[in-house]
Design brief:
eight-stranded mixed beta sheet, alpha/beta
Length: about 425
């Protein structure tokens, strides 16, 4: 089967997200249909998803004549074309010509329509772009409810948060310190033409100047290095597990944090829970690649009586399900798939998990609560409410936070890291 033109593949992927599929699912569906997306095709999709609100506003302004809306495939193709002209480095004439050819292949009668709109955009670009500033969603390329939540939770910072979410994320690596120093691994990368920067913290993190395919990373298949954002790598410091302790990683897939803990702390009695069998398989694959061990249990963490043997844990990591508002730059489909009502639903599930897992701690043990959200309802408010209803719990210091504060909130893009939250809770001795 001959693959479809790149822009048609990208349009079909965009339509999949529009139907409620995750971006990963939509891409996988294209691959199963015999149309694996190239890196350029993925760049088209990511740009269109990141800038959908401004793209839709432009498309509405460009359609000056009343009449029937274009077919969904053509509307999606137009979104792809506008994103390419606005945010990628393709030569304008090539982007227009290839988009018109794709429109002709999809629906011949629509080629002239697409050609006219794209050429009008290029002629009137400055005026059309300036008009976007009048529209809240188009100005920030986020849904209105999300912009308002950011503004309420982080007064004066919502524009910067949205801008960070609309930028491509850097590629962060975690070096397995058992087998290589960070400096030595950076030298290995340099010999292959890959420039890596080492931040002050986390201790084993490297940030690539340019992202690369994982299979081009030396030692990746053998677990010498893993791809993990800098904020997520702080989990080892946040949990503060000691050698030989019994540790629970709840909601553990895809396994990056589980592996990081096992790499850095010796002789852990590590239990990892994941309720989804497919994700649990991915967790197992991550552990095998990184050459670490954990007792993986496929079960719902809330179903305590079905999996817990009654032995208390010294440390618990609850990397809780959340809205993912801190990782939108990596997963732009979050802006399209999340709804305002999801925040309260996620907060309820997080509270249930906290209430179910905290009693499993040994006296003096610590639970680290983590999310990749920047919403207070899932983070600060969640912890405040838990402490108020749990007499045996108290806040404990996070060693990597100035002043040993018990919480750490990173907003999207700060120090080039994802939006992320940690809180440390200790059980009374």
């Amino acid at each position: 089967m001959n693959p479809e033109p790149i822009r048609i593949q990208a349009a079909r992927t965009l339509l999949g997200v529009g139907r409620g599929q995750s971006l990963d699912t939509a891409l996988a569906q294209q691959m199963e249909a015999g149309h694996p997306q190239s890196s350029f095709g993925r760049a088209l999709v990511y740009a269109a998803l990141r800038h959908a609100w401004s793209g839709n506003a432009l498309a509405r302004r460009l359609r000056t004549t009343a009449g029937r809306a274009p077919k969904p495939e053509i509307a999606a193709l137009l979104q792809i074309a506008l994103a390419e002209l606005r945010h990628l480095d393709t030569a304008e004439h090539a982007a227009v010509n290839e988009s018109v050819a794709a429109a002709r292949a999809l629906h011949a009668a629509s080629a002239g329509f697409v050609n006219a709109l794209l050429r009008r955009y290029l002629r009137e670009r400055a005026v059309l772009e300036a008009a976007l500033l009048e529209d809240l969603e188009a100005r920030h390329d986020h849904p209105q409810w999300m912009i308002e939540r950011f503004r309420d939770d982080w007064p004066g910072q919502h524009a910067a948060i949205c801008a960070a979410g609309n930028r491509a994320a850097p590629m962060w690596l975690r070096v397995d310190a058992r087998r290589s120093s960070r400096a030595d691994y950076a030298v290995r990368l340099a010999t292959l033409g890959m420039v890596a920067h080492a931040p002050d913290a986390p201790a084993y993190a490297l940030r690539l100047e340019q992202p690369v395919a994982v299979d081009s990373l030396p030692g990746f298949d053998a677990g010498l290095v893993s791809v993990q954002d800098a904020a997520a790598q702080r989990v080892v410091e946040a949990l503060d597990a000691q050698p030989g302790q019994r540790v629970l990683d709840a909601c553990a897939a895809p396994g990056g944090k589980t592996a990081a803990l096992a790499e850095r702390v010796a002789d852990l009695d590590l239990v990892a829970i994941e309720r989804d069998p497919a994700r649990a398989k991915r967790l197992q694959e991550t552990l095998q690649r990184c050459r670490v061990d954990a007792n993986v249990i496929v079960e719902d963490a809330l179903a305590v009586t079905r999996w817990w043997d009654g032995r208390p844990f010294d440390r618990i990591l609850l990397d809780a399900p959340c809205t993912g508002t801190g990782v939108i730059r990596r997963h732009p489909d979050i802006k399209h798939l999340r709804r305002a009502t999801d925040v309260a639903a996620q907060a309820r599930q997080q509270a249930q998990l906290l209430d179910a897992l905290f009693p499993m701690l040994a006296p003096g043990g610590r639970l680290t609560y983590a999310t990749c959200s920047i919403l207070r309802a899932e983070n600060h408010d969640q912890i405040t409410a838990f402490l108020a209803r749990t007499p045996a719990a108290r806040s404990a210091a996070l060693s990597f936070v100035p002043g040993d504060a018990p919480i750490w909130q990173n907003l999207s893009g700060i120090d080039a890291a994802d939006g992320f939250f940690y809180a440390c809770l200790q059980r009374s001795a």
